[in-house]
Amino acid sequence: xxxxxxxxxxxxxxxxxxxxxxxxxxxxxxxxxxxxxxxxxxxxxxxxxxxxxxxxxxxxxxxxxxxxxxxxxxxxxxxxxxxxxxxxxxxxxxxxxxxxxxxxxxxxxxxxxxxxxxxxxxxxxxxxxxxxxxxxxxxxxxxxxxxxxxxxxxxxxxxxxxxxxxxxxxxxxxxxxxxxxxxxxxxxxxxxxxxxxxxxxxxxxxxxxxxxxxxxxxxxxxxxx
Length: 225
Known about the structure:
Blueprint: E1 11-14, E2 21-22, H1 24-37, H2 45-51, H3 55-60, H4 69-83, E3 89-90, H5 94-103, E4 107-112, H6 116-125, E5 134-137, H7 149-158, E6 165-169, H8 172-181, E7 184-187, H9 195-200, E8 205-206, H10 213-216
Parallel strand pairs: 1-4, 1-6, 4-5, 6-7, 7-8
Antiparallel strand pairs: 2-3
Helix pairs in contact: 1-4
């Protein structure tokens, strides 16, 4: 049996890749540029998509051995900086959802394993950066997801308790992160993890798409303090 949504929601936290944004083609292009420079075979969009979500260091190490990972990372970063300006797509319903939540007075945050630089590029390129009060990324905490550090950092910055927040993510690492931070977690099968993988971890709620979120809970108008 699924739990009910928290009664007093003060903060909605979103993962980025696969949840609000589709940057998989840009990531794949940068991986294949890196692979070409290092004399390695190209990778499919599907393969790269399934490898995303553990931070850029983890992504690189899916394709390059440890002793050359730093070299590969430099190549990837140099290419990805520009590629993110060219191949980005916001997920269906995301812009409408963010505007509606903001209008209802919800405070919002981003919790991503991406480096801060790339998160900022994505949010600014898609013109959705103004919706978020906090953006906490993998390079800002000691341990990336599935460790709870990134959610705990956001909760601390927002001065809210875990039971006053909701987290939306597309990967198994998001479900585990939410559970470990004791934050109510909505899983959405639009990114790297398959529906069966999400179900196996028993998140609080599984939703089919972002537009479903508005029907799940009303957000109160923001009060003073």
